C-alpha cells in the first residue's frame, strides 16, 4: 500500500456506497462460499460444534442461564472467527488457489490484538448478563435446561429483564459492529495496526450509515436464524457472512 494512502485523511480512505449495497455483498459472499465449499462449510461446522460444546459445558457447570448470553457472544466474536474466510476471498480475488492450512495462516499479531479486544468485550457482556439475571431472577431456584424457558416465560420479571438486557446488548453490539465492520478483513489484506484498522472501520460505518444499518440487520437476521436450530444454521450462515464481509471491505475502503 502506498505511503501516501496511509497518510491520507480518513475521509479519503472511505468510499460511499448505495444504501442497498449489502445485497451485492451477500451475493458475492454466496459465490465465494459455493466456489470453496469444503473450506467454508468446514469452518462453519467447526463453529457450530463449538456452540454445542459450550452449551454442554455451561449446563454441566450448573450455569444454564449463561447459555443465552454466551450464544449472543457469537455476534461479538464471529468477525474474528471468520478471519480464514477473508483470506479465502482475498486469494480468490487474486485468482490464487487456497487450502485450509493457508486460510488459517491469515491470523497475525495485529489480528490477535483485535481478538483480545473482542474477548474483553465478550467477557464484559457475559458478566453484565449474569448481573442482570441475578438482579431480576435472584433467589429463584434454577430449573432444568428443558424447564428454564417456560419458567422464565411465567415469571413477572421476564419483560423488564428482556427490555434491559436487549437494550444494553444492542448498544454493545452496535459499538462492536462499528469496530469490526471492515477492520479484520483490512488486517488480513494490509500491513497496518489494529488501531488504524478500527479507526477506518468506524469511519466507514459513519460515512455509510444507511448501508451499514442494513448490513448489520442482515447479519443479525442470518445469525439469529442460524442459532435457532441449535447452532446448526451456522454451518452456512457463518461462511456466507464472512465472505460477504470481505466484499464489504473491498467496497468501502479505498486502496
Report on the architecture of this protein.
It contains 13 helices and no strands. The protein has helices spanning 3-6, 22-35, 37-60, 67-81, 83-93, 100-104, 109-137, 148-153, 158-180, 183-189, 194-207, 209-227, 234-252. Helix 4 (67-81) runs antiparallel to helix 7 (109-137), helix 5 crosses helix 10 (183-189) and helix 10 packs across helix 11 (194-207). It starts with a helix and ends with a helix.
Layout of SSEs?
Layout: H1 3-6, H2 22-35, H3 37-60, H4 67-81, H5 83-93, H6 100-104, H7 109-137, H8 148-153, H9 158-180, H10 183-189, H11 194-207, H12 209-227, H13 234-252
Helix pairs in contact: 2-3, 2-13, 3-4, 3-13, 4-7, 4-9, 5-10, 5-13, 7-9, 10-11, 11-12, 12-13
Short description:
This protein has one domain. The chain is globular and about 55 Å long. The chain has helices spanning 3-6, 22-35, 37-60, 67-81, 83-93, 100-104, 109-137, 148-153, 158-180, 183-189, 194-207, 209-227, 234-252.
Apparent shape: globular
**Helix/strand order, N-terminal first:** HHHHHHHHHHHHH
**Rg (C-alpha, Å):** 19 Å
- Strand tally: 0
The number of helical segments is 13
Organism: Belnapia arida
Transmembrane segments: 38-59, 65-86, 111-137, 157-182, 213-241
Protein name: DUF2189 domain-containing protein
Keywords: Membrane, Transmembrane, Transmembrane helix
Amino acid at each position: 500500500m502506498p505511503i501516501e494512502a496511509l497518510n491520507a485523511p480518513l475521509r479519503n480512505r472511505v468510499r460511499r456506497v448505495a444504501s442497498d449495497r449489502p445485497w451485492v455483498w451477500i451475493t458475492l459472499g454466496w459465490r465465494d462460499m459455493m466456489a470453496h465449499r469444503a473450506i467454508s462449510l468446514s469452518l462453519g461446522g467447526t463453529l457450530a460444534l463449538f456452540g454445542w460444546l459450550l452449551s454442554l459445558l455451561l449446563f454441566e457447570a450448573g450455569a444454564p442461564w449463561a447459555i443465552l448470553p454466551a450464544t449472543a457472544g457469537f455476534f461479538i466474536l464471529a468477525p474474528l472467527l471468520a478471519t480464514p474466510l477473508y483470506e479465502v476471498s482475498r486469494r480468490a480475488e487474486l485468482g490464487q488457489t487456497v487450502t485450509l492450512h493457508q486460510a488459517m495462516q491469515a491470523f497475525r499479531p495485529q489480528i490477535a490484538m483485535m481478538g483480545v479486544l473482542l474477548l474483553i468485550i465478550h467477557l464484559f457482556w457475559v458478566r453484565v448478563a449474569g448481573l442482570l439475571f441475578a438482579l431480576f431472577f435472584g433467589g429463584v431456584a434454577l430449573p432444568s435446561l428443558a424447564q428454564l424457558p417456560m419458567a422464565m416465560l411465567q415469571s413477572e420479571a421476564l419483560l423488564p429483564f428482556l427490555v434491559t438486557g436487549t437494550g444494553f446488548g444492542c448498544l454493545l453490539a452496535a459499538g462492536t459492529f462499528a469496530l469490526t465492520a471492515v477492520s479484520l478483513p483490512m488486517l488480513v489484506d494490509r500491513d497496518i495496526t489494529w488501531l488504524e484498522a478500527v479507526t477506518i472501520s468506524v469511519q466507514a460505518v459513519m460515512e455509510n450509515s444507511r448501508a451499514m444499518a442494513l448490513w448489520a440487520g442482515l447479519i443479525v437476521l442470518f445469525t439469529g436464524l442460524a442459532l435457532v436450530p441449535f447452532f446448526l444454521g451456522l454451518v452456512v450462515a457463518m461462511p456466507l457472512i464472512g465472505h460477504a464481509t470481505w466484499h464489504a471491505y473491498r467496497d468501502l475502503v479505498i486502496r
